[in-house]
Design a protein that fits this description.
The protein is an alpha/beta fold. Among the domains are: 213 residues, no CATH class; 279 residues, ABC transporter involved in vitamin B12 uptake, BtuC. Helices cover 56% and strands 6% of the residues. The protein contains 38 helices and 10 strands. Strands 6-7-8-3-9-10 form a 6-stranded mixed β-sheet, sandwiched between helices. Strands 2-1-4-5 form a 4-stranded antiparallel β-sheet, covered by helices on one side. Helix 36 links the parallel strand 7 and strand 8. The structure holds adenosine-5'-triphosphate (ATP). Adenosine-5'-triphosphate binds next to strand 2 and helix 31. The site of adenosine-5'-triphosphate has 11 residues, from strand 2 and helix 31. InterPro entries: AAA+_ATPase, ABC_AA/LPS_Transport, ABC_transp_permease, ABC_transporter-like_ATP-bd, P-loop_NTPase.
């Protein structure tokens, strides 16, 4: 090996060793707590400053200072974060969105605090702890890595750590002190962060913004190791370090050189982009992290006050007015986050990139330096920049289609860092670039007035996006993505729309910001700003345009009136505390967490009142308006005969306020009151069977009753086979759901009922077999497309949209479903008894029985031909089940094909035309309910 190669390899190993340290720390913290610590780099920076302070400012001995920094300050900081920030969140349920925002909050807080304490400028006198030669650093990494690996595999603590990571609650039940494990994980992670910081600081710029970001770039190493395998993390870190240094030897000519230099200097960013965008996402266990909550209605007059406050700067002059110029521009940038994060529920840490691109493109277009385009006047340049940047929204929109939560946070962060490093920081893109203001708006006052006009336009655009059909679909997607798909929402297209609109708004704001500053300043669009803006919008009400205006005023005002860093520190504190205030932005999320069968055990007083009004005095059948033909004789099983369940099935879900009388002993299952066992009504309904609501109108989505109506298509499955890894969950299943019939599937837990249901609904794709709707093969059709064809479904675990009202929930179904029928919402609400005061209540917090009706109403409003119901009676009381049965019978009588997967055999007996029994992934018996269920009852014994 030549001496140059050798030297470069050693230098690369040195950098790689520092990255490996961070990778080890990030993985251990993640394993111990489930939190990807976004503050890792900020902790590294703080520790580097502490060491420098001890040695340079106070003149303390290096090794004493290092011991204090690494063995006391760093672990102490980690333990304090665990105790005061993350433990309270995990006690509250550990919502991944909250922990993510909290860790970004800690990042922002530490960065702001460091800027306040030590000033925003860079230091070049950080003390050298380990010499630049790599052997010492490599030895540190090797010892640490080996100790951690042995510790995790061989020690009791390691076993406890793995137990906590797998299932914190189960581990606690098993006697593990999860808090101690998490505290140790945080302390160790912070120690490694501190070590990375003090090792790196002498060789890079030590400043509050640069070092944290540099350290966070190495998160790529941990992601590449799937947040799990330490050896992979170390190998990747060392490999990238060496490759990065070797790249400095290459000197291609022409355009290749600056590009190669950029790549060579930022190989960890390239790795981050690949790891975050190309590798399967981390954090798969973070189901449905949603950083947005219910939109709190702005108090009356708040908009007027905001309007007056935003007009006030027109009366200012000089420096104050010059500072105020940033507020409308930043407001527009933050509005982009209201659309993407607040309304669409998509985490976006990369908005600063779009804002920067807006400013850069505006400057290039106005200077006539944009390739292929002529020089444009400033305002036209701004408009053109918005148009050019908008499609780039797919850079983050595309990853969002298949990612959520932590994986999406990483992907958007990676894009932000990538654009910053490969575009904003490159002299070929930005050198000598200036940015003027539009002609006639050169003075601060005139420019501020122009900004207000642009802000008003942006507010109107946001209002249009958030209101109406698109706004409701966005909110539905945010509240419950699977529920939105089931309602027919085209989720991937909607995500792209959210990100493209967000990119356009951010570009507009960024361009305005650049014109306000009269320059393209890459620092103004640094990825750290992206984190700060995200945190600011989330803490001040993600789904509130007024919150965005307030956040912009706060960010600009705090930093202008005081030392730089105050705004970040304040936002950081708020972000750290955000999940802990009842009624805060996460209230709706917590409510969403309660939306499970038997979830909200105590209805709110208002909910209880509504419920009483809807159901009448207890006990008794619920007065849910149903089809005219649904008579008392059709009222389903007698109260007191319910409760028979599939042998091996799960116990009954808790019933509501109506309670449940004891089951009648010895009663043969499947003999509903008023209907002799086995005797069924005619299955094929005539047109006259169309249910009428109280006002005589046809029920929602019904077909016009004409004699010439073609036969309705049914749903059919042939030879379905589904495998989960090596396990066969469905094995050659055939099923037909004819129009006008109720088909039921029963079977013990784990039989494959839900898997079959998912195949029909489009959420699981079989490895073999076909699903047909009429003559059409729909095996590969996604869920939302099936809904639009007329195959609607409900969920075993409720999938309503908690931040939308009952009526809006139903409206989403009507707007996205098979038929666009303006009257469907009202008719469906009436049909299911939801047209009273309850229609205007947000779904969050309503009783389970009401929410089941809301979900059913949403499905019906789409005008389905096939209705798939997964345990529709779970969590309902006897009267509610009876009312549900009446509605379902009426629907079948009207020609809808119904599938009911249900454990409640009495409901099945009273409802179904044909029952299929599933066991171990196969249908083992089929027939009329009387025969099949009696046989099942005998098999179950007395
Ligand atoms: N995503 C998955 N990955 C691996 N195995 C799965 C998955 N989903 C289901 N299974 C397994 O497939 C089998 C069938 O599950 P399925 O949920 O379809 O049964 P089920 O009859 O609906 O049960 P239940 O009544 O409890 O809902 C079970 O053994 C289950 O553990």
């Amino acid at each position: 090996m030549s001496s140059l190669t050798y030297d470069l390899t050693l230098a690369g190993l040195s950098v790689g060793a520092a990255a490996a340290l961070s990778g080890i720390g990030l993985i251990v913290t993640y394993r111990a707590t489930g939190v990807l610590n976004f503050a890792h780099g900020a902790i590294a920076m703080v520790c580097a400053y502490v060491l420098r302070n001890c040695v340079v400012e106070w003149g303390w001995p290096l090794w004493w200072s290092a011991a204090l920094t690494l063995l006391v300050v760093a672990p102490g900081l980690g333990a304090a974060l665990e105790r005061f920030v993350f433990r309270p969140l995990s006690v509250l349920g550990g919502d991944p969105a909250q922990t993510l925002v909290a860790s970004i909050g800690v990042f922002v807080l530490l960065v702001g605090g460091a800027a306040l304490l030590w000033g925003p400028g860079a230091r070049d006198d950080a003390p050298v702890l380990v010499a630049a030669e790599p052997w010492g650093q490599l030895a540190v990494v090797a010892v640490l890595g080996a100790a951690v690996a042995v510790g995790i595999r061989r020690t009791r603590f390691g076993r406890e750590l793995r137990a906590v990571v797998d299932d914190r609650r189960l581990a606690v039940l098993g006697g593990v002190d999860a808090d101690r494990v998490a505290a140790a994980g945080w302390a160790f992670g912070s120690f490694t962060a501190g070590l990375t910081g003090v090792l790196l600081a002498p060789y890079v710029r030590l400043d509050p913004y640069g070092l944290p970001l540099l350290v966070m770039e190495v998160v790529a190493v941990a992601v590449a190791a799937r947040m799990r395998v330490l050896t992979v993390a170390v190998a990747v870190a060392l490999g990238i370090g060496v490759a990065q240094s070797q790249l400095t030897r290459l000197h291609p000519s022409g355009w290749g050189e600056p590009l190669l230099q950029a790549v060579g200097a930022n190989l960890f960013v390239v790795a981050l982009l690949i790891a975050a965008l190309a590798l399967p996402g981390v954090g798969a266990r973070d189901a449905l992290p949603r950083p947005a909550g219910a939109r709190a209605p702005a108090p009356p007059g708040a908009w007027i006050v905001a309007g007056v406050l935003f007009l006030l700067p027109l009366g200012l002059a000089g420096r104050d007015l010059h500072t105020a110029v940033q507020v409308p521009a930043l407001s527009v940038v933050l509005l982009s986050l209201v659309v993407v994060t607040g309304r669409g529920g998509q985490i976006s840490l990369g908005q600063a990139a779009y804002a920067g691109l807006g400013a850069l493109f505006t400057a290039l277009l106005a200077a006539g330096r944009f390739p292929g385009l002529p020089r444009l006047p400033e305002l036209a340049a701004l408009a053109a920049a918005v148009v050019l940047v908008a499609p780039l929204g797919v850079l983050t929109g595309w990853p969002a289609i298949g990612r959520r939560g932590l994986a999406l946070a990483l992907a958007t962060f990676a894009v932000g860092v990538g654009v910053s490093r490969f575009v904003f920081d490159q002299p070929y893109a930005t050198s000598g670039l200036s940015l003027g203001r539009p002609a006639g708006f050169d003075g601060d006052r005139a420019y501020y007035a122009l900004e207000l006009a642009l802000l008003a336009g942006a507010l109107l655009a946001v209002r249009a996006l958030r209101g109406g059909r698109t706004g409701r679909a966005l909110a539905a997607m945010r509240d419950h993505e699977s529920g939105a798909r089931a309602a027919g929402v085209r989720v991937p297209a909607l995500k792209l729309l959210a990100f493209v609109s967000g990119a356009a708004l951010a570009a507009l704001g960024g361009g305005m910001l650049g014109m306000g500053l009269r320059a393209f300043d890459p620092g103004a669009y640094d990825p750290v700003r992206g984190l700060l803006w995200f945190a600011a919008v989330v803490v001040l009400g993600a789904d509130s345009a007024l919150g965005a205006l307030l956040a912009a005023a706060l960010l600009v005002g705090l930093d202008a009136g005081t030392r730089g860093g105050v705004a970040a520190a304040v936002i950081g504190v708020l972000a750290v505390l955000v999940g802990r205030f009842p009624g805060g932005p996460y209230e709706a999320l917590r409510a969403a967490g309660r939306l499970r069968p038997g979830g909200p055990p105590e209805p709110t007083p208002l909910g209880a009142r509504v419920r009483r009004r809807l159901r009448g005095p207890e006990p008794g059948p619920a007065p849910v308006p149903v089809a005219a033909g649904a008579t008392a004789a059709d009222a389903g099983p007698r109260a007191g005969t319910r409760g028979k369940r599939v042998p091996g099935g799960r116990p009954p879900a808790p019933r509501g306020a109506g309670g449940e009388p004891p089951a009648a002993p010895g009663r043969a299952a499947g003999t509903p009151a008023g209907r002799p066992g086995g005797t069924r009504r005619p299955a094929a309904p005539g047109p006259s069977a169309a249910p009428r609501t109280g006002d005589g109108k046809a029920s929602p989505g019904r077909r016009d009753a004409t004699a010439a109506s073609p036969p309705l298509p049914g749903l059919g499955a042939r030879a379905l086979r589904v495998r989960y890894g090596g396990f066969t969950a469905l094995d050659g299943v055939d099923l037909d759901l004819p129009a006008g019939r109720v088909t039921a599937i029963v079977g013990p837990n784990g039989a494959g009922k839900s898997t079959l249901f998912h195949c029909l609904a489009g959420t699981v794709r079989p490895v073999r077999g076909t699903v047909r709707f009429g003559a059409r093969d729909i095996t590969r059709l996604p869920a939302h497309a099936r809904t639009r064809l007329g195959i609607a479904r409900t969920f075993q675990q409720l999938a309503v949209f908690p931040t939308l009202t009952v009526a809006e929930n139903v409206r989403v179904g009507a707007e996205q479903g098979r038929v666009r029928d303006a009257g469907a919402v009202e008719r469906t609400l009436r049909l299911l008894g939801l047209d009273g005061p309850v229609r205007a209540l947000p779904a969050a917090g309503l009783p389970t029985g009401t929410l089941r009706r809301v979900e059913l109403a949403r499905a019906l409003a789409s005008g389905p031909r096939v209705l798939l119901l997964d345990e529709p009676a779970a969590g309902l009381d006897t009267a509610e089940v009876a009312a549900l049965a009446r509605v379902l019978r009426a629907l079948a009588a009207d020609g809808t094909a119904l599938l009911v997967v249900e454990h409640d055999l009495d409901l099945v007996a009273g409802l179904a035309d044909v029952v299929h029994v599933m066991t171990a992934g196969r249908i083992v018996a089929s027939g009329p309910p009387g025969h099949v269920l009696d046989a099942l009852g005998e098999a179950a014994g007395p």
